[in-house]
Amino acid sequence: MFMNANLFEPGKSKSERSFIQSAVKQNTRFDGRKSNEFRDVKLTFGSDWGTVAVSMGDTKVLAQVSCDIGAPSSARANEGTLYLNVDIKGVAFLDEIQSTHDQRFLTLNSLLERTFRSSRCLDLESLCIAVEQHVWCVRVDINVLNHDGNLYDASTIAALAALMHFRRPEVSYAEEKIHTFSERERELMPLLFLHYPVSVTYCLYKSSSNPLVDPTLLEENAADSIIVLSFNSYQELCTLNAGGTAPTNVRTIMKCARSAANRSKALVQFIRKALELDAERRLQPNRVFGLADLLSDNAPLLSFKHLMAENVRQEVAQKKISDEPIPSTETVADEQLPADTKIEEAPMDETTWLSVEESTWIEQQMKNVQQSLAVSAQEAGKTSKSKPNRSKNKASKKPSIRNQDQSDSEEEVTQIL
Amino acid sequence: MNKTNTENDAKVKLREMHCKFNPLSRCDGSVMYSQGATVVIAAVLGPIEVKTQNLSIEGSYLECNYRPKAGLPQVKERIREAAIRDVLELALLSEAYPRAKMSLQVQELEDRGSIDACALNAACLAMLIGGLPLKYSFAAVHCIINEKGDFILDPEESETQHQKASFTFAFDSVDGDLLLVQTKGAFKIAQFNDIECICRQASVEIFDFYRSNIAKYHSKSEDQPLATIESARSELPMET
Amino acid sequence: MPGERVRVVEDAAKNKRVILGPGLRRLDDKVVASKAGPLRHKDPNTFWVDNYQRRYVPARGDLIIGIVKARVGDLYRVDIGSADTAAISYLAFEAATKKNRPDLNPGDLLYARVLNANADIEPELVCVNSNGKRGKLGVLQDGFFFKCSLNLARLLLRESCPALAALTDEMPFEIAVGVNGRIWVKAHSMRETVGLANAIMSLEQAGYAEIDKICGDLNSVMQT
Predict the structure, then answer these.
(1) Which of A149, A389, B176, C180 has its CA 20 to 30 A from that of C154?
(2) Bias category Basic residues: which stretches (chain A) (predicted)?
């Protein structure tokens, strides 16, 4: 992904690379963001169920969910299927050569597969109509309209928002016959979720230890390695994809993971909120909805900054009433993170790990750590048992990527010990 | 015309048209075009490098792709693609860039009736904005005859449920010649002629729409600042 | 609009010879537009249609910025943003001989002049003028490079461009503008370069009236 010499792309010529490298060293970003600042995310829902257009800066992605009735696979006879299809050959990549194309397609597709399918975010059993005969096949089509970096986040947000927005018709099954109710007969049903995963992308450079979040195309192309982390709203890790040539240490990844977890939670909240607003709009009669809104100026803006600013205000108000919910979710994250670091074969106690980490952590979050420290100390044993299988799966996926990081992390581990 | 005006059910007005130029950053010209609730994006690229198998010495090779919103392109999409290519090949001044390729992609965003006509109109706008040389511009209009025998111009999706026949016409801007006729269903020749008249009148409206929007776009990029984008852009360096 | 007869030019052509620029063509004795945009006229007799364009079509004598793609025999292949890649010979550099070859690698930026341009053959570049001196041409080191529309590049290259004059009042910098819609800038510090590049890119949307404002913004950036 990184060494490909497609020189048409921004960020691929030598001077651009060295410029970005030194800009990163000086902590400057081209569009004036801070290294941990995100671009604004905007959602536009279509008039059909399950159509969502997401834009992050200049990156634009369209997701469309559709479903039909099909036969299940023989291995999982009681489950519906989820099929993800990424279409990047559309309007965004007219000028690209084939090899870059395939590579990009594969990375993106595998990321989405792992985020949504392998993490089993949909309750597939609820999509079963008759065991071994009829199940719902849900299909997500992702059309990339414009690529300005961070396709990963944009497509996961689009896919998640589209899945959450989607409604399927209800069916009844009797005497080997399926009757599908039309929208008038019975209300359409939303899909059932087990959790809501969203990814966050970081760029790493050899010249700097500071990762950049939400890279633009220029930054992404000049980057030495890219880390994609998917977290769900419960701040559990779903996917980790790290590649490239920049030496990374555990601490950087941990730092990324922490902020990614928070970001994912906020994103899911944002999607929920946008969906609520969309549902409200749908109740109003005689309005033209849909993607035509993209063209009109006075359409209601479902942007992340806009909605979350309201949210923060509400949250502050909530906090005053009860301090309960926020620390409790933090502990979930902290339980999960040590479990994640186990993959590195670090023979260590979670508590020591955390206390070291604490010193390098951002001041703002200090309090939360201390709170969670106590909890995670108690639950240290518990977490290692309840550690979900998927992190083990990941361990098998990762070694190839990790090889070069291994020495790095081991050094650090010895230092810590 | 007279006949349809007297009946209440007939509709001889186009739906509201909107367009936004260059929403995409990576191609030479792109346009997001909507007619009522039907929305498409068209993007052109060209002249660009051509594969040797498609190379032609006299003129440029035209590549045309239509992408549906969901699923892979099927036969229906291929037909639409071919229709767009046929019209474009007529309109494109291909001898201007020999040994090159012009590439056009149309992405459906939302189909709420008369998608064929929308795709063609978007393609024309994208060509105009991308600065590709054309012999003339073109406009396409869709019209149906419903079950009562009324003519409905530029129908909504709901109105096409019980259609007896549907027509898509494409006209050129200079002589008003017909570039494309697609018909489906049963109709009388007289009806066909009537509908062609209606569509021809509607195409004038579309050409006016092209002209006013392109004029607006050019004046905007030269003299008057685009208020929203400008303010957003000028904020950017502030934060560095 | 394409296909329309341009009467103004036809009238002018009755009295004298006229030069038809891009976007206009002759059909028998009619002058017909092939692009959409406002008609421009430059005395004494040049007419063309001005339109927003991002794709570069090479023309003889243009100054362009290219990226070296590969070396092929005696040539370097250079991407200049047009349909074909351009070629530049080893010998088209200052003081280059068969023994003393210039050291170019894929990814290098090149500021060059188009020597030869024709729709049917590959464009050819040079990095020297007719005296064999390199002048301002050659490899561009460091700095920052970005793409913009052709219109903006042409606007900046106009001799009386108020934008560049206003920007030079703010700070010293080096700039190379290729008519193929590529701009390279270099200022003293990273921050200045970034600010400068942003200022130039914002010109794309703004137009002349906004130049003062953009310069003001730039100024405030530098002070912070």
Answers:
(1) A149
(2) 384-400
